[in-house]
Amino acid sequence: MNEPDLETIATELNALYEEGCRMPFPYEGIRKLLQGGRGNYEGFIPDLSLYFSTVAGYCSWGKRILRWEATKIDEAKAALEKQFFDRHPEYKPLEKMIGEHGNADLLAKFSLHEKMRIELLRLLEDLQRLRTH
Questions:
Q1: pLDDT at 4
Q2: Residue 118: which residues within 8 A CB-CB, separation 6 or more?
Q3: pLDDT of residue 18
Q4: Residue 123's closest CA among 21, 9, 31, 34?
């Protein structure tokens, strides 16, 4: 992958970040999800909020990501390598219920952040590959 392609991806990630900023936090969908879930999920909202902000925060760098040093790339990859329910297995029973019970706002936010996470990981891997060659 050449440098302009990486710039394009970084720009697209920043656009996804801005799209995510326009979406409110999905409290309504979460309430519906938690009503359908059996168990104590007291930390779900703060954990989800931190996860979303971590993914979005990295995407907000835009083209400046391309200037990151290897240690920053490694740090970001470690933070992004697992999706939310792999990072927080205590909430795994809720995963299959996302998109049900009228929580479309939650599904949309999850989908956007998963797309951002995957694309960002690809970009970081490409950056690492370019720097080692």
A1: 56
A2: none
A3: 93
A4: 9
Domain chopping of the chain, boundaries: 3-132
> What's the mean pLDDT in 94-100?
85
| Residue 99, pLDDT above cutoff 90 | no
Over residues 99-111, mean pLDDT: 86
> Residues 112-132, buried b or exposed e (16+ Cβ, 10 A)?
bbeebbebbeebbeebeeeee
Q: Give the number of other CB atoms < 10 A from CB of residue 110.
A: 22
- At what angle are helices 27-36 and 104-132 packed, to 10 degrees? 110
Please answer whether residues 94 and 33 qualify as being in contact, where contact means their C-beta atoms are separated by less than 8 angstroms: yes
> Mean pLDDT, the chain, as a whole number?
91
Please state, as a whole number, how many other Cβ atoms lie within 10 Å of the Cβ of residue 56. 20
The residues near 71 (Cβ < 8 Å, ≥ 6 apart) are none
